[in-house]
Amino acid sequence: MIPPRFDYHAPKTVGEAVALLGQWGSDAKLLAGGHSLLPMMKLRFAQPAHLIDINRIPELRGIREEGGTIVIGAMTVENELISSPILQAKVPLLCEAAKLIADPQVRNRGTIGGDIAHGDPGNDHPALSLVIEASFVLEGPKGRRTVAADGFFLGTYMTQLEENEVMCEIRVPAFAHGTGYAYEKLKRKTGDWATAGCAVVIRKNGDQVSHVRIGLTNVAPTALRAEEAEAALLNKPFNAANVQAAAAAAIAICNPAEDLRGDIEYKTAMAGEMVKRALNKAWALCA
Amino acid sequence: MTKKLITVSVNGKKEEKAVEPRTLLIHFLREELNLTGAHIGCETSHCGVCTVDIDGQSVKSCTHLAIQCDGSEVLTVEGLANKGVLHAVQEGFYKEHGLQCGFCTPGMLMRAYRFLQENPSPSEDEIRHGMSGNLCRCTGYQNIIKAVQYAAKKLQEPVAA
Lengths: 287, 161
Known about the structure:
heterodimer, A: alpha+beta, about 30% helix, B: about 160 residues, 5 helices, globular
């Protein structure tokens, strides 16, 4: 399969990329890792007349600390997340979760920004970004703006990223000491998208839950933050009954599409199971 | 949509070619350079038979544009052997019967080649994870693992003077 014809542009700066997007509008698409876009182009689900390759923009790569905030360049690839000493120390959930994304070759190309900006409910970073309370720095013709992950995902392939904007950075608060975390992803085989996935960040005060975020992957048209499931745990003792209540609350907001991974009933039940596993695993890491 | 001139080093040889932007690296290798070692399988980055090395990283060449390789160094399975002497990973697949139909083998070899540089003395579990982007439809995985173990051992041996 060969993609349809397009004109190729390889800007060297974000400013140039934004200018090209302004020039070509909806006829243009940004090329990040390309592991979603190129297959979609081969299948004619996407036929951009202009492809703007942002792989040659150095400012979009790398991971650094700014005070208590970890700043991840949007074009940082999954394997770089896994091997980053900064993330291992400050946001270890991203390292652990990235190991469950695709396979070694794809992780050399697939980027965190592309995974988020694509708006595919099967992608893993949307739910992860919800629980780590990430925000996204987007640059457009009028400059930069910062948008919280919570509220960014509007629907399948729909986000708050405008047609003329480039995602530049993912900003994440460093985990407080003793933060527990987990990403549980049920998949049929390596490299598959989640049948159902759950991301958890949790903190404790004695035997009580003092902070909790629960995010769900691939069980609705977008990644979901399960707020009622969080409420079932917050400021309460962490025990089997409350974990069960949280799982039930998460199940209540699931709206998965039936596909080869399973029917609606199965996927919904598995979402509940992933919530329980992730909560128990994350709690065990809490200090 | 005019063709653009790119310069790519492929198996150590500098290649200058005009390519259409939509030309995928796998088609560039197979059709422009007649390097048909890397195969076309799923075409959607799942199966790994098209795996090559770009600037020291394993990449699935069905999901990479040739034009993106401008200025890069590409290694394909044709570049593995040195003056007719098989590379350790090739020897391993031969000795341990790491192939049946052979279709997945070029991708397996290229991934094993890079993986053993990323992790020179892997456990069996690490090999399974490291090779997880390559599928074998003959399901000959057990001998593929043995082949990688053979190569790891061979690469650790001191080079004869």
